[in-house]
Design a protein that fits this description.
Layout: E1 2-6, H1 16-26, E2 30-33, H2 65-73, E3 80-87, H3 93-106, E4 111-116, H4 121-126, H5 134-150, E5 154-157, E6 162-166, E7 180-183, H6 189-196, E8 199-201, H7 207-223, E9 232-238, H8 242-250, E10 255-259, H9 265-279
Parallel strand pairs: 1-2, 1-10, 2-3, 3-4, 4-7, 7-8, 8-9, 9-10
Antiparallel strand pairs: 5-6
Helix pairs in contact: 1-2, 1-9, 2-3, 3-5, 6-7
């Protein structure tokens, strides 16, 4: 089982490239970043990750993850560079396809494309997403991006994306394209993964949840004439606890991500060393 790091990247951390280099030197498999393109000042949405629904301060401070991971790629040679998650429906899919292909090209095929559709209605609406049908929109966006990644002349005609034949380079280093891992724990997520995903990134689950999900996923993949063993399962945002990590290894997930909570470079380096001492043994 692979062990990676999930964290936010903010201005207060300084050069994210140096942090990524440290992550690689310590022996972690990958580093994964979230995103919020904008944070509305006025909103009624509540954040599910806190008891009172308040939004953690670091969510207001995050940099663009694709740019940060591009910076990280120039400081590293081995680690995977992932989004957990990119809010795919909050971007122009043609522009996003080019950004991702460029990062994957320059990093030598190290990009891991974790996607989600978010929980923040006001943010999604500001960015032009159809929040009530966001996963339908996400599937169409990814389908259009795959056309761009795999064809010299690509075109797409759908409800949310419609463009005539275009040429868009570079193509991703990975063939046919970087793996697309779907985030979320909603009831339909496994159906989506089986139908059009390369992996799943759940958060807030336990090993028993994963055992049950793997049975369901196997059945769904059989219906789609796919091999469930080819679906990557990456557990997002675990605490630094060896027993917890080991329990997920026992249920044979592909990767776990241990979360970093510090927000300054010096604190992050210390925290990373502490995590490595606990889980990389």
């Amino acid at each position: 089982m692979k062990i990676g790091i999930s964290m936010s990247a903010t201005e207060s951390m300084g050069d994210f490239g140096a942090i990524a280099k440290k992550i690689e030197e310590l022996g972690f498999d990958s580093v994964w970043l979230p995103e919020h393109p904008v944070m509305p000042v006025n909103h009624s949405s509540k954040y599910a990750g806190t008891a009172d629904g308040s939004i953690p301060q670091q969510m207001y401070l995050g940099v663009n993850p694709i740019i940060a991971l591009t910076r990280a790629s120039s400081f590293t040679t081995k680690i995977g560079l992932g989004t957990a998650v990119n809010l795919v429906t909050e971007h122009n899919p043609l522009d996003l396809a080019k950004l991702i292909a460029t990062l994957d090209f320059y990093s030598g095929g190290r990009f891991l494309y974790g996607i989600g559709t978010g929980w923040f209605r006001e943010e999604a609406e500001i960015m032009g997403a159809d929040f009530d049908h966001r996963w339908t929109q996400a599937e169409e966006y990814v389908s259009a991006m795959k056309e761009i990644w795999t064809k010299e002349e690509a075109e797409f005609h759908g409800k949310y994306v419609d463009f005539p034949p275009v040429i868009c380079n570079p193509k991703p280093f990975q063939k046919p394209h970087p793996p697309v891992l779907l985030g979320g724990n909603a009831g339909n997520v496994l159906k989506r993964v089986a139908r059009w995903g390369d992996g799943w990134i759940p958060i807030g689950v336990n090993p028993e949840d994963i055992k049950k999900a793997k049975v369901t996923l196997s059945e769904l993949c059989e219906d789609e004439e796919r091999n469930a063993d080819e679906i990557q399962i990456t557990i997002h945002s675990l605490p630094c606890d060896k027993d917890t990590v080991d329990m997920f290894e026992d249920v044979e997930v592909d990767r776990v991500l241990v979360r970093v909570t510090s927000l300054t470079a010096s604190e992050i380096f210390d925290e990373l060393e502490g995590i490595a001492e606990v889980v990389l043994v």
